[in-house]
Amino acid sequence: MAKVNIIFYSMYGHIYRMAEAEAQGAKEVPGTDVKIYKVPETIPEDILIKSGAKKVQETFRHIPIATLDSLTEADAIIFGSPTRFGMMAAQMRQFLDTTGPLWAGGSLVGKIGSVFTASSTQHGGQESTILSFHTTLLHHGMIIVGVPFTEPNLSDSSNIHGGTPYGASAIIPQDDENRPNSIELDIARIQGKRVAELAKKLFG
Predict the structure, then answer these.
(1) Is 14 known to sit in a ligand binding site?
(2) Would the N or C end of the chain have less CB density within 10 A of its end CB?
């Protein structure tokens, strides 16, 4: 049984929807155990309430909080974070900054790591977010997996949508409740399936 854990941070629910799509794809692979975790929120509650994020976050309050065990127990870990000025969100960074003991012990060496993201604009730093995220995974000795161009949606230029060979992504215009769109969610599903397939080959 290959174990795939999805660990995400989501302020307004878009990354959570992508995490669900990643999980759906991973579950398509027989013999795969899939779990979803969220990293702790660090924004003060009054700010979350004023921004409307608190109400949205209630929809995934049932998702358990990630711990270091959420990393060590898995064969493959798919991380999801919104883009913040071309980098991962501070909440995800803070969680990763607690993994020093795992690095010291080589606990994540040889595990699969993969990343997905979203930004509010088409050129909002999605690729730099994923690539800079990879730096942390490489320091942990993880095997990085992206989305190959055999996925047709990556080459689709007839629609404006996210999706990169480095990992799934989504463009979230302000107040657009139709995002992530079906193409973006499908790329996330494909990514989850690919990670699970490779995890099964290596660890199943």
Answers:
(1) yes
(2) N
pTM of the model: 0.96
11: annotated binding-site residue? yes
Q: What is the pLDDT of residue 174?
A: 73
Annotation-wise, does 194 bind a ligand?
A: no
Q: What CATH number is given to the structural domain containing 20?
A: 3.40.50.360
- Does the annotation flag 103 for ligand binding? yes
- Binding site annotation covers 15? yes
pLDDT in tens, 50-67: 999 999 999 999 999 999
Q: How far is CA 15 from the centre of its chain?
A: 7
Contact partners, residue 130, CB within 8 Å, separation at least 6? 115, 116, 117, 164, 166, 167, 169
139 is in an annotated binding site: yes
Q: Number of folded domains in the chain? A: 1
**Could you read off the pLDDT of 114-163 as tens digits, one per residue?**
999 999 998 899 999 999 999 999 999 999 999 999 999 998 887 889 99
Q: Which domain holds residue 155?
A: 2-203
| 107 Ramachandran zone, left/alpha/beta (phi>0; psi -120 to 50) | alpha
Per the annotation, does 12 bind a ligand? yes
84 is in an annotated binding site: yes
Is the predicted pLDDT of residue 177 greater than 80, yes or no? no
